[in-house]
Design brief:
A hairpin with a 2-residue loop joins strand 3 and strand 4. This protein has about 130 residues and is an alpha+beta fold. The protein is globular, with a radius of gyration of 13 Å. The two termini are about 25 Å apart. It has one domain: endopeptidase domain like (from Nostoc punctiforme) (endopeptidase fold (from Nostoc punctiforme), Alpha-Beta Complex), CATH 3.90.1720. About 20% of the residues lie in helices and about 30% in strands. The longest helix has 10 residues. It comes from Ploceus nigricollis. Belongs to the H-rev107 family. One of its GO terms (molecular function) is phospholipase A1 activity. InterPro entries: H-rev107_PLA/AT, LRAT_dom.
């Protein structure tokens, strides 16, 4: 169940509570998000474990929000809007869709799921969880 706003808007950052960490996705509309999932495990983001932090590659996927969230709690969290200006929504979505099905480098400290979605929203990757 959603916390805060229950109806995300295109371009919103979605924060998903997972055991031991937060997974991040970008809402693109019609119930879909774009997010990165580990390539090494071959598992959907729903099954991502903390061992995935050691993976070096990720794949960008467009998936239903409800599939990515599973039974975990989630919220819209555009927390960086206080210090950064979001790109126009059309630009955010356009950039996000260019990445679908691409393999990208992954590093828990410098190129994690939060870095990826904040790069799409603001043009700069940011993560406070590391």
């Amino acid at each position: 169940m959603a916390e805060g706003r229950s109806h995300p808007q295109p371009g919103d950052l979605i924060e998903i509570d997972r055991p031991g960490y937060q997974h991040w996705a970008l809402y693109v509309g019609d119930g879909y998000v774009i997010n990165v999932t580990p390539v090494d495990e071959g598992a959907p983001s729903l099954s991502v474990s903390t061992t995935s932090i050691f993976t070096r590659k990720a794949k960008v996927k467009k998936q239903l929000l409800k599939v990515v969230v599973g039974n975990h709690k989630w919220r819209v969290n555009n927390k960086y809007d206080r210090s950064r200006t979001p790109r126009p929504v059309e630009e955010i979505i356009w950039h996000a869709e260019q990445w679908i099905d691409e393999e990208v480098p992954y590093d828990v400290l410098n190129r994690n799921c939060e870095h990826f979605v904040t790069m799409l929203r603001y043009g700069e990757g940011v993560s406070e969880q590391v």
